[in-house]
Amino acid sequence: MQKLWAGRAGKELDQIADDFNSSIATDSRMFRQDIQGSLAHAAMLAAQGILSQADADAIAAGLGQIAEDLESGALKIDPAAEDIHMFIEQVLTQRIGDVGKRLHTARSRNDQVAVDLRMYLKSEVGHIQGLIRDLLGAIVHQAEKHVDTILPGYTHLQRAQPIRFAHHLLAYAMMFVRDLSRLDDALRRMSESPLGACALAGTTYPTDRAMTAAALGFDRPCRNSMDAVSDRDFCVEILSALSLIMMHLSRFSEEIILWSSWEFGFVELDDAYTTGSSIMPQKKNSDMAELVRGKTGRVYGHLMGTLTMLKGLPLAYNKDMQEDKDAIFDALDTVTMCLQVFTPMLATMRVKKERMYRAAQEGFINATDLADYLTRKGMPFRSAYQLVGSLVAECIRTGQVLETLPLSRYQSLSPLFEADLYEAIDLKTCVECRTSEGGTGKDSVLSQIQYIRTLCPDAAPADEEGE
Ligand code: ARG
């Protein structure tokens, strides 16, 4: 196919160079946005008297037909085309004749690709935000079933203090809420239209950039034509938000992998989200969670790749920037797939309450509460801490736990100990007493649930019976 830019060139592009240069395999997914942008551009050209209404109508009809034929599959994307912008313009001209050649008046591929990409990203980001809301729905639903499920909370992966399982899950919900708002921020800043910036300097035609910006759903046109076609900071912002989503999903996955091990035995994943081993019949592997953890690296890679691609570029457009789409599309696809598999995996995860409770009984995780008990009775916290530390050491030596140590032993160490100490170190009391705002106490957990519910109004309603 002859290049639309053939004119200056004395001979055809070398075949390998042509393949190397082509981006259609990547950017053809923006065909809807490309057509939408062209429709708005043609309407503006007619409104400004740059194009006759008849020509604009012919272009609009031709573009409409191309859109329909691409949707139905009647028109196939030509893999040999340079990019989606060239392909659509070429097909248009083949179909409606020379009028099609007028579409590119007062426009360049530089502003065209920038506007297409922003529109495409807006719709993809909206889709990912919907998937995050679904995930919040799955989290809050599990949380509601496990308000009274107690397990050890960990620091350094050592049993630390008892917590409600709902509280643990809701910690992730808060992270995903911030991810949602980070994407909102990126969308807000991206909502300026580059269309009409043309190659870099603007145009001599009396265009109306506010008209196309409004028609395409942007808040306003970009204020500087060189900035409009040169920066891809919006890609970096979105990649950064996607990286954080993956980081959160990856940590959550890591916990699910640990929890499903024999060693923890806190949860069991549904068979639909685990695999077996080809040799070891007993195995049930958390492959989905492992893949989510594993795919995090490639999203970080795209963030670094894009930042690095941009760092040395002089203004304005450079072909290096064509690499932006491979990176961000793969990142979007990866995050989409991960969310799509993670949410139902979490929703169907079976929680083994008894195992969690037993683990909570074994690790002296009420030691802080025993120290607090003494402190409430007047002993300075640091002394209480030391006394309880020596009791824990004694229990470990003698194979006991704080709950089974006789009162006489307690009282031989401090007269402050009374029979009510057993109540104070009961796991349920420990959890119940953490009434500080944002703590694992019941009121705090219930209000967290309520808050998350407002952000995912479509989530399934709470079940009455727990698990
Ligand atoms: N395929 C190109 C890209 O994605 C479109 C812009 C081409 N502009 C140019 N001046 N060569 O970046």
Task: Summarize the SSE layout with pairings.
Elements: H1 15-21, H2 24-27, H3 31-47, H4 53-72, H5 84-96, H6 109-145, E1 150-155, E2 158-164, H7 165-190, E3 192-193, H8 209-215, E4 220-221, H9 225-230, H10 233-259, E5 267-268, H11 287-311, H12 323-347, E6 350-351, H13 353-362, H14 367-376, H15 381-398, H16 407-413, H17 421-424, H18 427-432, H19 442-455
Parallel strand pairs: 3-4
Antiparallel strand pairs: 1-2, 5-6
Arginine is lined by residues 23, 27, 83, 109-110, 113, 317, 319, 321-322.
The CATH topology of the largest domain turns out to be Fumarase C, Chain A, domain 2
Which series of helices and strands comes N to C? Answer: HHHHHHEEHEHEHHEHHEHHHHHHH
- Give the strand order, joined by hyphens, for the main sheet: 1-2
CATH class of the largest domain equals Mainly Alpha
Q: Say which CATH homologous superfamily of the largest domain is assigned.
A: Fumarase/aspartase (Central domain)
Average pLDDT level: 95
Tally of individual helices: 19
Distance between the amino and carboxyl termini: 64 Å
Number of strands: 6
The portion of residues assigned to helices is: 55-70%
The coarse silhouette is: elongated
- Protein structure class: mainly alpha
What is the radius of gyration? 31 Å
Low-confidence stretches: none
Largest sheet: 2 strands, antiparallel
List cofactors, ions and other ligands. arginine
Sheet-strand content, in percent, reads: under 5%
Gross CATH architecture of the largest domain? Up-down Bundle
How many discrete domains? 3
